[in-house]
Design brief:
The mean pLDDT is 82. The relative contact order is 0.03. The chain contains three helices and no strands. The longest helix has 66 residues. The radius of gyration is 41 Å and the shape is rod-shaped. It has two domains: 70 residues; 35 residues. The chain has 118 residues and is an all-alpha fold.
Length: 118
């Protein structure tokens, strides 16, 4: 009986040692991974700072460009998009009204021109 208890204890100790070895290996792998991350961290932080500075500079530049009053661009924008913010249905209705008014105007001009004595 004593031998069985000893063998049970020894196999338990062996199993415990094996699990401790596995834990130690896992800790070594994690330590190596963390060391690699620690070596790469300053470069990543610098890259992040550069990216943020570039974004800030770009934002400042675009804000300044938006707020700058350039006479040519302001005049062109008004001419290019007179119906900005209007729905497609309203744009079509405006086009149709314009065509109808042009046709009426041409009919009036033709009728006045024909009524003139030659």
């Amino acid at each position: 009986m004593v031998r069985k208890k000893l063998s049970y204890r020894s196999s338990r100790l062996i199993a415990e040692q094996e699990s401790l070895r596995q834990q130690e290996e896992e800790l070594r792998r994690q330590e190596a991974l963390l060391k690699r991350r620690l070596r790469r961290l300053p470069a990543a932080v610098e890259k992040s700072r550069r990216h943020q500075n570039d974004r800030r500079a770009k934002t400042i530049y675009t804000t300044m460009a938006r707020t700058a009053q350039l006479p040519q661009k302001g005049a062109q924008r008004g001419k290019q998009h007179p119906l900005r913010g209007v729905s497609l249905r309203e744009k079509r209705a405006a086009k149709i009204k314009f065509i109808i008014l042009v046709l009426i105007l041409t009919l009036l001009l033709v009728s006045i021109w024909r009524s003139l004595p030659s």
